[in-house]
Write a structure and sequence with these properties.
eight-stranded antiparallel beta sheet; single chain; 25 strands; alpha+beta; Immunoglobulin-like; 2 domains; rod-shaped; about 425 residues
């Protein structure tokens, strides 16, 4: 019988006088072949947006059908880390039937279990086990444990607790939301009634995987606003040393987004690029980001508008509600981002509001140079040395005519004087 661990187990544990005493553990290496059972974990992550349409999977020990929701509507997670505890004595001392005990273990979180076990010094029999890409879909962990607890002379019971996720997975898992699994052996095949030697379990987390969006708006010099089409962005996150890791163009729609460093994101064609459309909408299409902080970097603006040099933070909370049940919201550039519609599209209301938004300032146009007034056909023409000379000095043709006139006057005068002189002599 398999069920998820819950807060009820702590209530039982607190009432058990023997719990703080030594609890004998069955070694995972004990027993000849045939005395061990193989447990196969299939670690899955469910988007909170898909929760309402998700049909819960009943762990019965069998491998799930590929069309079931636990596979079709979830994503495999490599790098999830698990510890395994022997809880056989706890099960015996609870004085509960198998079903009654497991029914009370339905709401306790992994973090609560970890804190409790550490406080009481209980040690796992297997520690630091990680899921990997054994199968095409990944997220697989296999391990063997004894079917029988020889110390207590009874069938064994185990507790499987998720303790974290490898940083290389690039995924944040909220251990307050993750649920442990309790396994009470033997597990019988629901069809044949025979004891099962291989048991498949499907632990899942509800993760806030988000596909962000925002609007690119141009602010004109007169204060008016217009959507900007064709502005390009890349996305990056920061590692522990503060170095930028950019989203690779080969990124997928699952949790295995690829990140890489680059010296020049503006020219690196291997990076994913996101471009604003005619409404200014920028969608990170095909990309689902887990909880954490990311940054958008503008690498190309449009003509007439300055390119923003500031990083644009994208903050995705780990859970959709806080401890008081209030909704938590994704923010972009410090502004709230409304959830997408049921169909996964940006809502009409968000498009009309154009929120959240990031601005680009219109470039200031240079002041025009002053031009000389057009005086053709009106007004008084401006006086220049050339115009002054043209008024004072005659042109070439005018000079020739003047000299001929003077010469003619001189000749006529000479003739007149000559005739007067001859007439005077004849007298």
């Amino acid at each position: 019988m398999l069920k998820r661990l819950s807060k009820g187990v702590l209530l039982i544990c607190l009432l058990l006088p023997m719990l703080c005493a030594f609890i004998s553990h069955a070694s995972a290496e004990e027993g000849p072949t045939g005395e061990n059972v193989e447990i196969v974990l299939h670690k899955r992550v469910l988007r909170d947006a898909d929760l309402s349409e998700f049909t819960p999977h009943q762990n019965d020990g069998h491998e799930a059908n590929s069309e079931s929701d636990i596979l079709a509507k979830t994503t495999a997670l490599d790098g999830a880390i698990f510890d395994v505890y022997d809880i056989t004595q706890l099960y015996q001392e609870s004085l509960q039937t198998e079903n009654a005990l497991l029914d009370q273990l339905n709401e306790l979180s992994c973090q609560f279990v970890i804190d409790y076990l550490q406080k009481h010094g209980d040690q796992p029999i297997l520690q630091g086990l990680k899921t990997n890409s054994e199968a095409e879909d990944g997220g697989i962990l296999r391990f063997n444990v004894p079917k029988y607890n020889r110390t207590l002379n009874t069938s064994a019971a185990y507790l499987i607790v998720e303790t974290g996720v490898d940083p290389s997975a690039g995924v944040a898992v909220d251990l307050n939301q993750a649920r442990p699994l309790a396994v009470v052996l033997p597990i019988l095949d629901p069809t044949t009634g025979q004891e099962m030697d291989t048991i498949h379990l499907y632990p899942k987390n509800i993760s806030r995987l988000c596909s962000p969006y925002f609007f690119k708006i141009g602010k004109k010099q007169d204060g008016s606003e217009v959507p900007l089409a064709g502005v390009s962005f890349v996305l990056y996150r920061k590692d522990e040393a503060g170095n930028r890791q950019y989203l690779d163009a080969r990124a997928t729609t699952n949790l295995s987004e690829r990140w890489k460093g680059t010296s020049d994101p503006k020219t690196d064609t291997t990076l994913s690029r996101f471009i604003s459309n005619e409404t200014g909408l920028v969608e990170l299409s095909g990309v689902y980001l887990s909880a954490g902080t990311y940054y958008l970097e503008e690498i190309q603006s449009v003509e007439g508008y300055t390119m923003s040099e500031k990083e644009i933070p994208v903050v995705i909370p780990e859970v959709s509600t806080d401890v008081e049940g209030n909704p938590t919201t994704v923010t972009i550039n410090g502004q709230l981002m409304a959830d997408r519609g049921a169909d996964g599209a940006v809502t009409t209301e968000a498009v009309e509001k154009k929120e959240p938004r990031v601005y680009n300032q219109e470039e200031k146009k240079p002041d025009p140079k002053p031009s000389l007034p057009n005086t053709e056909g009106k007004g008084t023409p401006s006086t220049t040395p050339e115009t002054l000379a043209s008024k004072v000095l005659p042109k070439t043709g005018e000079q020739l005519s003047l000299w001929l006139t003077i010469l003619g006057v001189l000749l006529v005068g000479t003739v007149v004087l000559y005739r007067k002189q001859r007439a005077h002599e004849n007298e």
